[in-house]
Amino acid sequence: MRSSSQTTSEFAFQPPRPGEQLIYFEHLTKAFGAKRVYDDMDLDVRAGETLVVMGGSGTGKSVLLKCLIGLLSPDTGRILFQGHDLARFTEEQFMPVRRHVAMVFQGAALFDSLNVGENVAYPLREHFPDMPADEVRARVAEKLALVDLPNTERLMPSGLSGGMRKRVGLARAIATEPEVILWDEPTTGLDPVTTQSINVLINSMKTRLGCTSIVVTHDMVSAFTVGDRIAMLANRRIVQVGTPREMLHSTVPEVRAFLDARRVELFPGGAP
């Protein structure tokens, strides 16, 4: 196990085999003052899968992603990523990790003063300061085309629709060609047609890039559309992990109550 004395040069990503454990949240606890978010929470993520974390508002879904990329720290427990305990990493040590794990934020988090091309180029300039300008431009164009936004480099964020902003946020996230993509409520605030296009985009990233994804959402249609496995977060822990079919037929009380309350989302024409 690595301690906080590690240097950034010691982190080296070794591509795992599909299905192997890639990330493991082990015995995590986290609180904000008197509000406890996790109590001894465990969750594993397998290489090449799309793992959906669902749960009600305020259950700590987004906190999980922020702990993984170092924006927050758990109080106790470990976050194992290829044998490295990220929970003990310093900000400096997280820099090479963020080349391999990228996050698409809920509101896209674009820089409004930068155009689309400059937004997508930003992580390249952060992580690869010596990359030639023509290579940066080529990488930006490639990633924008990958999310179906070719030739949009000169547009400003203020002129983009919600769906386009999400796509630019994804292009920026994949600019460094990460192996893991984190999606924080990717369909929140979008209309049904745009929501479906984002679901298609999430699935296409697995096909085109072979990446691992963790999707945080309370959108049941999205969860059951993109998830290879679904984890239910309730009562400060993961109460069940299973395939969409297994979760749909779950007898775990917290899962059953959550799905029953949202049954109309899954079965708008009536429950089967």
Automatic annotation (TrEMBL):
Gene3D superfamilies: P-loop containing nucleotide triphosphate hydrolases (3.40.50.300). Residues 23-260 form the ABC transporter domain. Transmembrane segments: none annotated. It comes from the Bacteria. InterPro entries: AAA+_ATPase, ABC_transporter-like_ATP-bd, ABC_transporter-like_CS, P-loop_NTPase. Keywords: ATP-binding, Nucleotide-binding, Transport. GO terms for molecular function: ATP binding; ATP hydrolysis activity. This is ABC transporter, ATP-binding protein. It comes from Myxococcus xanthus (strain DK1622).
